[in-house]
Structures are given as C-alpha cells and as structure tokens.
Amino acid sequence: MMQAVTFSIITPVYNTPSDVLSDTITSVLDQTYAAWELLLVDDASTSPAVREVLDKAAAKDSRIRVVARESNGGIVAASNDGLREANGDFVALLDHDDLLTRDALQVVSEALAEDVDYVYSDEDKVDESGRYFDHFEKPDWSPERLRHQMYTGHLSVIRTSLAREVGGFRQEFEGSQDHDLVLRVTEQARRIVHIPEVLYHWRVVPGSAAGDLEAKPYAWAAGRDAVQAHLDRVGIAGTAELGDAPGLYKIRRAANPDRMISVIIPTRGGTGLVWGERRCFVLEAVRSLLAHTSHEKLEIVVVYDIPTPQAVLDELKEIAGEKLVLVPFHGEFNFSKKCNEGFLASTGDIVVLLNDDVEAISDDVLETLVAPLEEPDVGLTGARLLFSDRTLQHAGHVYYKDVIHHSYFMWPDDAFGPFSALRLNREASGLTGACIALRREDYELIGGMAEDLPLSFNDVDFSRKLRHVGYRLVWMWEAALFHFESQTRDPRVKESEVTYLFRRWDTPDRDPYSADGAAGYVW
To answer: Boundaries of each Glycosyltransferase 2-like domain copy (predicted)?
Structure first.
C-alpha cells in the first residue's frame, strides 16, 4: 500500500438539481479517508441554485474547490479544467449526480502500490426512491471487453501524472470521453487493478444514461471512434463498428493471409440425428468449415480411429481435396492423445482444435477465430457454440472454488446476458476444446494436451496452462458454430481425472472474468 496517497475528485457540474448535487457532495464529505480534494467545475450553469450549493460546499470544507468556467464548454472542457487544477496523486472521476460509498477512497487507497496506475471498482444503480439494483460485478482487467464496451466505468481512479501525460480528455470524443481516456491510460499503465466491490452508485435520474442508454446517441458513435483510434494506436488490423445496442461495439479484424492454419479434428466417423436427419458428423463439420472460410493456406488434419468406415475417409478426400491430412489412431479412446498426434502431423503456424460434431454458422469463422492471435499476449481463442435448439453450449469456462462449468450454459442465443456479456468478445478463464485456436509455438510451450486426462477436463488443464504462462484467453462471440453434443450428456467423469485436475490446480474464491456461477462442476 502507498503511504499518504492523495485524491483529486473531478466533478463537472452543469444545471444539476440542487438536491441531487448536494447528495453527491455529501457522499464525498462522508468519506472515511481524509486525504482528498473535490474539484467542482461549474460549466457556466444558468441555475442560481447551483452556484448557491457550490459556494455553500466550499465554505463548509476547505478541501472543496469550485472552478468556475466563464462559458459553457461541455463535459470535456470542464473535465480538463479539473485535471489541470488537480493536486492529488490520483484523480477520481465522479459525475455530478452520482454517489460514492463511504469507504470508496479508503478501499482504493488500500489497493494502491507504486506500480498501480489505474483502478476501477464494481458499481450499481440507485433510483430516486433509494433502491439499489443492477450490481455490475465487473471482470478483472479485460482489454478485449473494453474494446467492445466501456465496462470499467465507475469508479475510475487514474494516476494524475499519467492522465496528463496521455493528453487528458479529448473534445472529438465528447460523450465517450471517459472511454477514450481509459483506453489511452490502459495502453500505458504499468498495472491495472479491479476492486470487486461496489464503491459507486450510478444514480438513475431523468435524462441520465443510467436509466436510458439512448439518452445520448452521439456518445455511441464517439465511442466507436475512440475504439478505432485505439486499434490504430496499438497496431491491431481491424475496424470498429457499432454493436447490437448503444454502448456496444464490434471489431472486424483482418486475419493474416500468410498464416498456415491447421484444423485438427479427432473422429471415429460417427453418425447421429440432427434436426430429424441422420448425418456423418465429421463430413458435415469439414464441409461447413470450408463453406464459411476463404482462407487459402489451410490444412484439415483428421485423426481417425481405425474402425472409421472407408467410405467416410473417401468422402473426406472429395470434400477437402489436397487440404486433407489423414492420421490413423490406434489404441483406446484418448481425446488428448488424438489432438497431440494430429498436432505432430500438422504444419500450420496456427492450430485449431475442432470436435467433429460441429457445424460452422458465421461467415469467415476461421478468420474471426484466429485473427486475435496476431496480438502477442493472446494465447487462446474460442468460439460461441450452440446446441441444435440455439441455446448456448459454450460462452467461456468459469472456475472458482469447486466449480468448473460452461458460462451461461443453455441460455438462449438471442439473450444479451448480464451487462451484455453475451454480445461481445471478452476474456475468459478457460475455453472448451471443442473449438479453440492458438499459435503452434504455444502448443509446444505448454506441452500440448494432458494425456492423463483422456476424456474430461483436458481443455480446463490446457486453458490453465496457457493462463499460467501469462496469456489472455479470448471468447469470440462473433465466431459461431453449432455443437451437437447432447444437452443431457451424463455429467459424471472419472474420479481419477477429478483428482488429477484439483491436485494440479488451485481454484480462486471468485472467477476473475465472470460472475455467472453454479454449484459443483458441470460437464
């Protein structure tokens, strides 16, 4: 913990209802931590009541300073005036109609260290009756999610010197100026800390974005432009677009056409009923994959059990042609070993592990899946997988205590999920082996799939190994496939696999990337 850290709370003010503004100021005066200053930047309010509240507050406590602007310049100009006046080690952003919890600054001060440059907390909303709701249990630092949504929001605390170094707030991003600033700050920050506690109450008052996401339509476009500017700065080849609702964004990344992609599919040539018709799974998996990608440098490595019908292998040759590599597999079923043998027979720069009981849905599915692997800190990507009835089979893994399960399992595919978690790409603790992509050198680095886990938890172990060496794992909402695994699959697993996994890995008290939970492990 840093000693005697000081905070400058920046609050732009414009024609705020006097009772609301007074409550905001009181939430600062009530802080249990004393080393703060409150900079109330009056953006030329036309209401005499505002000036009365401000003057009264400044007279009450010397830590409160009023910065009066001569003309109305908007929230960016007012925020920059506050940043210029700040004397604290850190600036904290507080809207003129919101509330801090009494212990907000105390809790933040305890989370600080010499290398911490940005801190954010959980938040909730409070209505005019005093009812608290919509507790946003935010993920730990999730850069992919921040590109798709300004999720860090409130409470944001930034090292003052860094906020100034990156240029403060920028006029061209008015309405999403906080998103733009936090993108630039986190590009440079040495360490980012998430405090999983509600330290900020976002007040729902008439006209506020808390109550109506469409209250500021210009902010959505400004946020898209801020994300695009971020992509350009950090060298991500992609285009930012508006997402499925205000405040959400999409990124169309360009995959590197020079990368050889090896898709490894273990199979035994099995068949089953899908939508009332019998199909050979591996044939349709390969056929749909090729129909939904235009990537030229591609090989399909099919690792087949010896009993696989010859007719299936012959039809695979017709479908995939010269792209097909057939690898016979001898011995008892071991999914991990089959993946490893497929890897040894492959040549690609990028390796995609794919179950045979899938069907690609989205266009450019491979390109979408592999493009983030051009970022050196991304170690694994995974797809959005749906059961045949379009409920979710996979939206990332959740790990905590004795829980291992698929996040948002069997939610409808058209659901947005809590705080739009099902409508954006985001980091996850783990990804299912039914469809994942990674770089070849990283498969080798972690020793491939653990063959001591022949059936269950091999992808959990795989994910944990990649996170252990420091990589981000990204669930790609935009890469969608059907996965025809049974929804009523027997969840029982071998006791030896359970023992192996929990001896090898500790699990945290909370999942760092998801608040979605269930009791016990589900497979």
So the answer is: 8-137, 262-443
